[in-house]
Amino acid sequence: QVQLVESGGGLVEAGGSLRLSCAASGGTFTSYRMGWFRQAPGKEREFVSAITRSGGDTSYADSVKGRFTMSRDNAKNTVYLQMNSLKPEDTAIYSCTASWPWSDAWFYWGQGTQVTVSS
Are 116 and 19 spatial neighbours (Cβ–Cβ below 8 Å)? Predict the structure, then answer.
């Protein structure tokens, strides 16, 4: 079973940037496809991005496409989410998740990191 720990959240002004990290342990990192989700106050959790095991393919929600970039470093068992041109509506708790490549569900979750974008 893999454990996930996010870091890198914080307070930033609109138009600014943050880079989130998610460190994985306890499993074979390259076995998992990885994803980021976010949940804003009073809203349901929503998909942000995902990346394949090799890192060769990524997908993004329309709301972040062109502004966010997900990557992974399999040597460091870590995934990243580079967030540029941040908007107040990006404010949320961002959580890292892992799953098997053949499954549509996400099985393992981190505790989340808060991102707050001020206007």
Answer: no
